Backbone:
């Protein structure tokens, strides 16, 4: 006997991934297309429909009962629309209606991508067993999501947990979002690299100026590279401490490319957290690297769709 | 026929208030003592027991079925203990056990005072009808609480919503809590007054250097007084925007003595909110003055106890 499956979609600025996922979070069928992010909205949607087409052609499709979408944000779960910053052709795009039509009328659950990875880490990753958790992605941007009282807290529009755009430096540098001193403006990969370059760090013969190159330099002891990661860690710590102080979480799980720097990030982050998480009810906050890999978005979208159905 | 009543306690650094509250939030019996805040823990507890004694002596006491306590924090609802910053004799003090004993074994619900005023504003005040709200007190300190998804979000230890101690200025002035640039360190009444004095404002013949005096000077157009309130408003805006961006709220309700300054605070606060609440899902955040008066703590403690019983 075949059990119910979820059709999961993970929609980002680089790729559109799809999968059929079972109730244990196992991926049975996969499909993927590059995101034609600079094209018009209908062209982007056609790529989504191609992914869905591969899933519906799979023999297991008949068992799919619900669709879960994790999308680059902002999303509007109440309206069923998405407006991903990196996909300018989609502004208030009615993704839920279009996906419902493409799947023969299945119910569709939409959440932001930060919420999706949080659902995945809570279901099967580093936040498993934690009733109150913040999960983050530190990469080109900084995103996140919350588990509160044992349940995913997506918020009315599916955007809760946007820790990258809280200000921890109210007089700080202008962020593309319009605010100043956002966590992302200080701690994202491109900002770690920018700060190192501004302070005199220079790349090796390969010319690599990515955050990964800065991390390698920091591991080798370059003081400018170390300082840039320390500043990122300080901003992340202030943001994580703020989150804990506001909603009470007991673990912060951090994934994404910048988290791949390992101790270069995590050691100063844990130290800085002691400076900002000062009240007694947040002093024992743990920090852990994410455990789910690149499938986190798909598995999390499936988890959210399953939770909706319950 | 008499309906069930709640015995409510509102415990602060200045006074210990008690009441018998009915299911409509009406206060039927009151009692109050000054808090002997500098005395040892048992002396403080005796004042609480005197308040309870007046309530148990009332003819309505027989209808009391549950006790709700809102206490200056931090509290630990899971352990049943309190450690109010301004009552040094109470550190990990087993308030729940002691109140249960003093009330003949009634069930006792404990929450922080910020959570209590939030429960009151959500039940009968400015947050009524809002499923996602932040309620704040801006006074000697800055406290708060959250309503998420239609329910009070107290957090596992009853301390959620501590917006006064999130950092909005990660390199800023040291806060007594140990962190830097906390909202309270910039926006509380004493800090508004301190900043005005440091920048050259001088009191009138009455020597009044309170935040209320600064507010009066600001209303009269004194530029230093205006600037001190604007800075407080900026910090509050950054903190409120951070909260909205993290958990999705649609209203921030602000009470307490400093909120009594009215437009001197609210006008720059609404302006600054546009600078920090930039993502689409937080742009329509409303700000409103609190509606509950000095009974908010009692009414909210009663609301929380009633909600627990449901």
Residues:
């Amino acid at each position: 006997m075949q059990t119910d499956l979820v059709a999961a979609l993970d929609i980002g600025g680089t790729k559109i991934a799809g999968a059929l996922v079972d109730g244990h979070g196992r991926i049975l069928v996969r499909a993927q297309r590059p995101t034609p992010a600079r094209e018009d909205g209908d062209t982007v949607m056609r790529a989504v429909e191609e992914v869905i087409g591969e899933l519906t052609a799979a023999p297991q499709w008949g068992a799919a009962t619900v669709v879960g979408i994790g999308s680059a944000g902002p999303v509007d779960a109440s309206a069923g629309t998405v407006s991903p910053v990196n996909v300018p052709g989609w502004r208030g795009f009615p993704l839920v209606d279009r996906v419902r039509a493409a799947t023969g009328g299945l119910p569709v659950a939409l959440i932001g991508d930060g919420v999706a990875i949080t659902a995945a880490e809570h279901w099967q990753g580093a936040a498993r067993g934690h009733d109150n958790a913040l999960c983050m992605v530190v990469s080109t941007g900084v995103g996140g999501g919350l588990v509160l009282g044992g349940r995913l807290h997506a918020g009315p529009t599916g955007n809760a947990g946007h820790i990258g755009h809280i200000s921890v430096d109210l007089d700080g540098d202008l962020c593309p979002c319009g605010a100043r001193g956002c966590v992302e403006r200080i701690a994202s990969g491109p900002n770690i690299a920018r700060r190192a370059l501004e302070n005199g760090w220079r790349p090796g013969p390969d010319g690599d100026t990515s955050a990964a190159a800065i991390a390698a330099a920091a591991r080798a002891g370059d003081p400018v590279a170390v300082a840039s990661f320390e500043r990122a860690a300080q901003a992340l710590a202030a943001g994580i401490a703020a989150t804990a102080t506001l909603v009470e979480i007991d673990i912060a799980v951090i994934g994404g490319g910048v988290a791949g720097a390992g101790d270069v990030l995590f050691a100063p982050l844990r130290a800085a957290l002691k400076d900002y998480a000062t009240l007694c009810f947040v002093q024992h906050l743990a920090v852990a690297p994410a455990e789910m890999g690149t499938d986190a978005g798909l598995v999390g979208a499936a988890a959210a769709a399953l939770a909706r159905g319950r």
In short: Chain A has nine helices and twelve strands. Residues 223-247 of chain A form the longest helix (25 residues). Chain A touches chain B through 48 residues (CB under 8 Å). Residues 5-117+295-309 of chain A form a domain with the Nucleotidyltransferase; domain 5 fold (CATH 3.30.420.40).
